[in-house]
Amino acid sequence: MKSDHVDGGFLLDLTVTDWEKDKSQPWTFDITPRAACQVGESGTEITITELYDEVTRRIDDGVFIGQLEAAISRTYAYYLGKFAMVSVNDKNVEGVSIEMGENHTSETFTFSDVTCAIAAGLGTPEAGQFRDKSSGWFVFCNGRAVISADKSALTGWGGGGLPIFQPKHRPFLGTVFFVAENAERLPWTTTKSAINEDSEVWQQAKRQMSSVGRVVVSFLDGRYTDEGTEVASKDLQEVTKAPVNLMRAAVAQKRTFEAPKPRTSPRTTKIQYDAQVDQVQAIAKYLKRPSMSGSDIGRHTFNYFYRNEVGEE
Fold first, then answer.
1. Separation CA 100–CA 143 (nearest Å)
2. What's the predicted TM-score (pTM) here?
3. pLDDT 10s digits, 203-217
4. Which residue intervals of the chain are DSSP H helices?
5. How large is the angle between the packed helices 277-286 and 294-305, nearest 10 degrees?
6. Among candidates 229, 228, 259, which has minimal Cα distance to 120?
7. How far out from the chain centre does Cα 149 lie?
8. What residue ranges in 91-226 does DSSP mark as E strands?
9. Distance of CA 258 to the CA centre of its chain
């Protein structure tokens, strides 16, 4: 292990098999000091050799490297490119970028020396669609992601506070940022990769999360129609407003999600009628599209009349 810093660094060259044989107490490591480095040259390099065969096979299986890069990108999203760089096989890993709409609800509270900032709103679509990987709750402890895109009872879904997550909820995006000077106060496990569900500060946050997220979920529930649960992104842009990064949303002043007022009259209506099968087939044949459905023919004839008789495009 080699670590360089402007205030000085160190070098640790450890042969584990030899170190294991040393039974003296207390056990120590032989650390060699290194001179201070120049600004911009600081960093830590860890080199591991003599790996177990099963570890070598796992690294070479063609899947592990991609999983590792994805985990680093997700977990250290707010450090990468700002405060640190991590490379895998000499390739810099970029942090995942997720944005929340400016129209969102946020609250902050402090519990046992831990500050917690909660925000919930609408995410931004990717290629016109809201993706599972960018929806649900994201939880951070001192900037490190410990929960990503969670839609389970762990974060309150289907547990009384919020309904069971459904496809119509895909635009939902919620964030929780825990910050504490003493990292032991944070509600994470010893591996810093999961939430300690028994933590009092987590229990308090979970109650607040349900309260903050409910108004956004209620808005999405109100948009549900018999036409299906897929949520189109186009008609949500006006509600979402300008996108902001999650950190900015977390530290913003307290605000409340503003759901649009119900329309006084619907913009669309459903047209249904029966028609003779042979006549429908005759129209499809005339259009040289024999596989057209009755719904497609209805839309085509409606558009034809509206364009040619009413004179509107």
1. 17
2. 0.70
3. 999 999 999 999 999
4. 16-21, 53-59, 64-75, 200-222, 237-240, 246-251, 277-286, 294-305
5. 70
6. 259
7. 4
8. 91-92, 99-111, 114-123, 136-141, 144-150, 172-179
9. 22
